[in-house]
Design brief:
The protein is α+β, with helices and mostly antiparallel strands. The protein is built from four helices and four strands. The protein has helices spanning about 30-35, 65-75, 90-95, 100-110, and strands at about 5-15, 20-25, 55-60, 120-125. The protein is globular and about 35 Å long.
């Protein structure tokens, strides 16, 4: 029996002049979700339409439940609203860049409860 797989992912736009733009999401099937974001199959997020195509930059996996992955996704998308990461707050434009999301990821992985879970990062591209 396979254990359920839940991950959060970071997409990077491949559109010229948008390559520092990123998108954070969560899924149980990263390849299918990337195809959705790129418009190959139905179900991509509206926020990602204008900056297609996307590449899967990294995934974070090892979440014990889907709810845990969703909570991590929210904190990664909104670090300025999480109690432990308010120091990372920046302008909305800066918050959607690769550098900012990588810094937020490093900060999240160093605080509870996420630093107590067996999370792994896999760089895809």
């Amino acid at each position: 029996d396979l254990e359920p797989f839940y991950c959060c992912y970071l997409l990077r736009s491949l559109k010229p002049r948008c390559t520092s733009r990123v998108y954070v999401g969560s899924t149980n099937n990263a390849l299918r979700r990337l195809r959705q974001h790129n418009g190959e199959i139905q179900g991509g997020a509206y926020k990602t339409e204008r900056m297609r195509p996307w590449e899967m930059f990294l995934i974070v996996h090892g979440f014990p439940t889907q709810l845990a992955a969703l909570q991590f996704e929210w904190a990664w998308q909104n670090p300025q609203l999480t109690r432990t990461l308010k120091r990372l707050a920046k302008s909305k434009q800066v918050m959607n860049t690769l550098r900012y999301k990588l810094n937020a990821l490093a900060a999240l992985l160093s605080v509870p409860p996420w630093n107590k879970w067996p999370l792994s990062i896999r760089f895809v591209s």
